[in-house]
Amino acid sequence: MLDVRRLRLLCDLARLQTIAAVAAAHTYTPSAVSQQLSALEREAGVPLLERTGRRVALTAAGRLLVQHAEVVLAALERTGAALAAVRTGVSGELRIGAFPSAIRTLLTPALVTLGEQHAALDLMVTELDPAEVPAALLDRRLDVGLIQDYDVVPLDVDQGLDSVPLLDEAVHLAVGSPAPTTPRDSGTLRDFRDADWILATPGTLCHTATLQICRSSGFTPKARHRIDDFGTVLALVAAGQGVAVVPQLATGRTPEGVRLLPLPTRRRTRAAFRQGAAGHPAVAAFLSALPQTDPTTSPSRG
């Protein structure tokens, strides 16, 4: 009989690539993870890992087992959701991960609704960049989270996750007025190739998207400031400190003196959760409480 906890470790190794990373995700020691994976190999009766010095890789049998293990783990998630559904009312802890502008515009009204309708539900929100949410869900540090992608940075959702669409919004270049560029400003992105740019922290989705948007126009932006909060970004743009790429959701509190130039890309937001968890009462209640928002027609929301 294959141990489910060990199957989860094997799936995490396929995702995280190193035993050290798996150990950190589970607060185990690397030697403990290695021992559990060796025990799983004995249970399976075939080699699952190829070890070369300190490096490990999955064998063909290991990759096959991961595929089947993902199905097993999703079935267990559905089972847990079904058991939770037979309880009276929606209760327990729901851990939510989201980015700041969504916390202000989407989550706050949802939290109020959930609090009014399900007083026994214990809600905990953690601010996370969308790029960090999938790992937090798979590591079971979150129950639901908001993930994103841009046309220029498509998202390949892990097979252990499911998601539902939430928003599809326009993306703008925020510039000061007058714009910090050449007098002959035609409003195209290349006109701002020599401007100072306000970029997000490297490694975040917004930073990656801005780089890709600029590179598609033939230049790499010159960073003057690195700011992750869009409210602060727009204040700096208004103060003449640079230009920045901002999504529609962040423009509801645009200061005077900031112009928004449309860019030929869009950003999509989805609510994600572990595969099989959609039927969990708390997850279902959360998804139902999210407001139906169309940022393309409601620019006042921010």
UniProtKB/TrEMBL annotation:
UniProt KW Transcription regulation keyword: yes
Lineage: superkingdom: Bacteria
PROSITE patterns (UniProt xref): HTH_LYSR
Family matches, as Gene3D superfamilies: Periplasmic binding protein-like II (3.40.190.10), Winged helix-like DNA-binding domain superfamily/Winged helix DNA-binding domain (1.10.10.10)
Pfam hit, one: LysR_substrate
Keyword field: DNA-binding, Transcription, Transcription regulation
Residue ranges annotated for the HTH lysR-type domain, each copy included: 2-59
Residues in the signal sequence: none
UniProt record similarity statement: Belongs to the LysR transcriptional regulatory family.
Entry-linked PANTHER family: LYSR SUBSTRATE-BINDING, TRANSCRIPTIONAL DUAL REGULATOR HCAR-RELATED
Protein name stated in the entry: LysR family transcriptional regulator
Classification lineage: Bacteria, Bacillati, Actinomycetota, Actinomycetes, Micromonosporales
